[in-house]
Amino acid sequence: MISGINRSSLDLMQSYNLPVMAGHQELSSNRYRQFCSTAGVDLPSQYLCGEQEIDAAVYQAKCAHEDGYWRKQSREKTKSVLLRWADLLESSADTLSWLCAAQTGRSLLDVREHSLPKSISALRWFAELIDKTENRAITDSQQISYLGIIQREAIGCVGVILPWNDPMVTFLWKVAPALACGNSVIVKSSEYAHHAIVMAVRLGHQAGIPEAQLQLLTGGKEAGAALVTHPEIDAISFTGSSSTGKWIASEASKHRLKRVTLECGGKSPFLVSNHCRKLAEAAACLARNVFYNQGQICSAPTRAYIHQEVFSEFVELLREHALTWCPSHPLNGPAAVGHMIQVNAVRRVNRAITEASCRGLTPILSGSVKEPEYSIHPTIFMNVPEGDLLSKLELFGPVLIVNSVDNLETAIRRANDTVYGLAAAIWSDDINEAVSVASRLASGTVHVNSYGEDGNQIPFGGIKDSGQGKEKSIDTLGSYSTTKSICIRLDDRAPS
């Protein structure tokens, strides 16, 4: 048994059950099954939900919403339940971390120290927000012959579709505000990262969330598609590829209009000015955010544009820092970097690297690992033409391109020459220059002398093919609620 797995927590997993329509199938990798065998863990196979299960889940969610127990209870009650859920998740952190790492290949060290605390922090933040928001009243004058009440209401039944690369963070970024607004929520977990979500949902029920209020569907893309197109779903929140996001945007509202929030792909730029004196810090920041999860992060800054005056020094520093992010065994390796999600992903990224080399692009940093079927070393290409596929496509792997530019005008133009617009960064010790560049970068989030260090109060979400709507912050409440205006004409006669 690997240290850190709580047997009582795993017993909770065994209690999870779904009705079977199309049978069940294990969709995880051989690597995951090996991990479970080594740990002495026998987890249930994943059920593939079909239309029957989805219809049943939606019916129960609609009944729960119409009954109104959750949305009508006091704010204090809702807040206390969500905070209790956060405490239960925290007490089961070791097991949740192990489940995430074993199934996705992400480093256990990274999940336990960064990803899971980040997700629990988001849940607590939204719980605390519940009694901080308020409805508004508007009058026409001091005499008050007219009163307007503007109140926020739950949107209804929300469908949430999760990715595999950071399952717990995206789960709570979506479910916490949706529940805080009073909605019924149906979650479709990724077929490659469902076990931790199963456990988290069960802990939510233990905390006091009614089972019909928060439901989980497991299975493949067919289950997700059925949830998206179901006519009784009121809103969809999705994180995943841009191609799937476009399909959802097109198909979700064919039968009726739905609120759709999409957090999709990226090809984020990282600019370094000749006025940046913290080159080592900038290089370390870039290396970490590209390579820490084998590049499998939608907002990873995979394109760097460095002023030619500091280019050579920066590249040497970058090589040094990149080597500290080499992959190792996800569960007991010394590095905070694990494996890629599956063998096919490794092959896809390796093929892109090989094809780039055939086009005359030679990586300045590359290498093999002991288990090449599951991971790829940090790979850096230098001065890649803007029209090349490496500059355009989101590879979702540990591949970075670093280009020299003669001025920031060129850097801005090249940074914006993409279909994506999720995140970006500018490093400069000239604050006027930094703010000017940040305002001109076409991106949902721009980091200045940092990257990825935004808190729960900061909205996150992209533009263009990177999506629509926002995660985190008070802004995301608009994805899970509607605003009702109540207009009241009062008797304007003077009192006798």
Structure description:
By secondary structure, the chain is of the alpha/beta class. The chain folds into 2 domains: 7-264 and 462-483, Aldehyde Dehydrogenase, Chain A, domain 1, CATH 3.40.605.10; 269-448, Aldehyde Dehydrogenase, Chain A, domain 2. Helix content is 40%, strand content 16%. It has 17 helices and 16 strands. The chain has helices at 7-14, 30-39, 51-67, 69-72, 75-91, 93-104, 108-129, 167-180, 195-207, 221-229, 242-251, 279-291, 311-322, 343-358, 389-392, 408-416, 431-440; strands at residues 136-139, 146-154, 157-161, 184-188, 214-217, 235-239, 259-263, 269-272, 303-307, 363-365, 379-382, 399-405, 423-427, 445-448, 467-468, 481-489. The strands form 3 sheets. It has a 7-stranded mixed sheet with strand order 10-11-12-9-8-13-14, sandwiched between helices. Strands 5-4-3-6-7-15 form a 6-stranded mixed sheet, sandwiched between helices. Strands 1-2-16 form a 3-stranded antiparallel sheet, with no helix packed on it. Helix 5 runs antiparallel to helix 7 (108-129) and helix 7 packs parallel to helix 8 (167-180). The protein is globular, with a radius of gyration of 24 Å. Mean pLDDT is 91; it is low at 16-25.
Topology of helices and strands:
Elements (H helix, E strand, L loop, with lengths): L6 H8 L15 H10 L11 H17 L1 H4 L2 H17 L1 H12 L3 H22 L6 E4 L6 E9 L2 E5 L5 H14 L3 E5 L6 H13 L6 E4 L3 H9 L5 E5 L2 H10 L7 E5 L5 E4 L6 H13 L11 E5 L3 H12 L20 H16 L4 E3 L13 E4 L6 H4 L6 E7 L2 H9 L6 E5 L3 H10 L4 E4 L18 E2 L12 E9 L7
Parallel strand pairs: 3-4, 3-6, 4-5, 6-7, 8-9, 8-13, 9-12, 11-12, 13-14
Antiparallel strand pairs: 1-2, 2-16, 7-15, 10-11
